[in-house]
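User: Please predict the structure of the protein below. I'd like the answer in structure-token form so I can feed it into my own downstream comparison script.

Assistant: Understood. Taking the following sequence of 103 residues as input:
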Amino acid sequence: MAIVFLKEKRTQRSLIVVFVLVVLITAFVIWQGFFKKEAEVSFEEGFKFLPRKIEIDFSTLENPNLEALQLFFKIEPLEEATPTEEGIGLPTEIGRENPFMTY
């Protein structure tokens, strides 16, 4: 007496159909991508948007409100910085002799 697994056969058939469909779709995509010739388009037809001419308006820099602005103070480099009046200054020695040593 043979044991027949009907559900497994049905599942296997559906998987075979899905596999064949995937192979056919893949073959179709490859055919369209590699073997089908596209219509050639010239550069003028493909380049529809022409770049605009750039114009810079320097009259904004002559605005009197812009002249009333104050500049930031100059930030000195770290080595040349001096301590502030509050006594909070920079350390005299920056870094450690061996930076890989634990604290």
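That's the full token string. The two ends are 80 Å apart (CA to CA).
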